[in-house]
Design brief:
Blueprint (H helix, E strand, L loop, with lengths): L7 E4 L5 H12 L3 E6 L2 H14 L4 E5 L5 H13 L6 E4 L15 H29 L3 E5 L12 H20 L6 E7 L6 H5 L4 H6 L9 H12 L9 E4 L17
Parallel strand pairs: 1-2, 1-4, 2-3, 4-5, 5-6, 6-7
């Protein structure tokens, strides 16, 4: 059964990777989409492709979730048009840098905390009251295995994803007594632009992250998000850990080269 037909879905960080794959999966299911991201050209290309392939309503906006005022303005435009999301997917997130605390780059820290934690809060705060007032809705926060186990040089990224888990649990408690659902999807290795961003554009270093095993794809994660969203309304998948078969936790990954 497809329960997503005609549902309104807002996806942040929608221009690439998991966000773009999720937009494609939900458009195929007949959902109407509002897509937010920083890169307007990619957003518009994605919207053009989805419109050509699917009979779905699409809204796009260039929104950096770190900018509290821009988030509030973009949210207000949707709410004033009576566009309240049935589903809010807080997908925007990143890792920046890979270093010890004592050698950490403060700008990298700001990017991660402002995007992964504060951005999620800004977007959720903008829409959750309207979703509660209307009496239905589903919030999905993109977490990570990094929110379960700390690994060397992951420090601030780990902290940001532990925060996502805590905020998901806290939001679930805050909406108790309402029909709203709140879920956290926590992937392991997914081959997207993630590693390229983390290593500041160093492509060989980024590719090496996925050497010797088959990682998840954005489409794999999108299919799991669809499964969670498509569950009956009395079912809330509060916390889901998703790994490629070669990976068993943040430390144990079987690589064909024996590393």
């Amino acid at each position: 059964m497809n329960r997503m037909q005609g549902k309104r879905v807002l996806i942040t960080g929608a221009s690439s990777g998991i966000g773009a794959a999720t937009a494609s999966r939900l458009a195929a299911a007949g959902a109407d989409l509002a897509l937010w991201a920083r890169r307007r050209d990619r957003l518009e290309t994605l919207a053009t492709d989805l419109s050509a392939a699917h009979d779905t309503a699409l809204l796009v906006a260039c929104v950096d979730v770190r900018d509290r005022e821009k988030v509030a303005e973009a949210a207000a435009r949707l709410l004033e048009a009576d566009w309240v999301p049935d589903v809010l997917i807080n997908n925007a997130g990143l890792a920046a840098g890979f270093s010890t605390i004592q050698e950490g780059d403060l700008e990298d820290w700001d990017r991660m905390i402002d995007t992964n934690v504060k951005g999620l809060l800004f977007v959720t705060r903008s829409f959750l009251p309207a979703m509660i007032e209307r009496g239905r809705g589903h919030v999905v926060n993109m977490g990570s295995t990094a929110g379960y186990q700390v690994y060397p040089k992951g420090n601030v990224y780990n902290a940001s994803k532990f925060a996502v888990r805590a905020l998901t649990e806290g939001t679930n408690l805050d909406v108790a007594g309402t029909p709203l659902r709140v879920s956290s999807i926590n992937p392991g290795f997914v081959q997207t632009e993630f590693a390229t961003v983390r290593f500041h554009g160093d492509e060989p270093k980024a590719r090496a992250v996925y050497d010797g095993f088959e990682p998840l794809t954005g489409e794999d994660v999108a299919n799991v998000i669809y499964f969670v969203l498509n569950a009956p309304e009395h079912v809330n998948v509060a916390d889901l850990l998703l790994l490629p078969t070669a990976q068993r936790n943040v430390y144990v990954v079987h690589r064909e080269d024996g590393r």
